[in-house]
């Protein structure tokens, strides 16, 4: 799987540079997300700008990854979904489970707002 990681102070932006995320890439994605959260920067933004097609297994894993992030007090945001990917997630009732933003900039804002919320609620890092 081809990707780029841009590590910021509070989060990683992982841009997937594949037009298709097939079922056999699910484990690669799982390993990648696990690996990048092993240091003090635990929040993740997945940029799907290049992804035109998504297999169901990957879509289901994204909802699992979102739930795991919530349980671990981490942010997990998906941004820049392409129409076919968004349509699949909507059809499978997964879009509302995920934290999705139209742009990467808005994803940054979500991560920062969730960070403030965790601090205010006493659940900071």
Please, could you describe this protein's structure?
This protein is of the alpha/beta class and 125 residues long. It has a single domain (3-120), classed as Transcription Regulator spoIIAA, CATH 3.30.750. The protein has helices at 26-36, 56-71, 83-91, 104-120; strands at 3-7, 11-16, 20-21, 43-47, 53-54, 76-79, 100-101. The strands form two sheets. It has a five-stranded mixed β-sheet. A two-stranded parallel ribbon has the order 3-5. α3 (83-91) links the parallel β6 and β7. The longest helix has 17 residues, at 104-120.
Topology:
Layout: E1 3-7, E2 11-16, E3 20-21, H1 26-36, E4 43-47, E5 53-54, H2 56-71, E6 76-79, H3 83-91, E7 100-101, H4 104-120
CATH architecture: 2-Layer Sandwich
Query: What is the CATH superfamily?
Result: STAS domain
Order of helices and strands: EEEHEEHEHEH
Helix content: 40-55%
Number of strands: 7
State mean pLDDT (0 to 100 scale): 94
Shape: globular
* Strand coverage percent: 15-25%
Assembly level: single chain
Q: Assign the structural class, choosing from mainly alpha, mainly beta, alpha/beta, alpha+beta, or little secondary structure.
A: alpha/beta
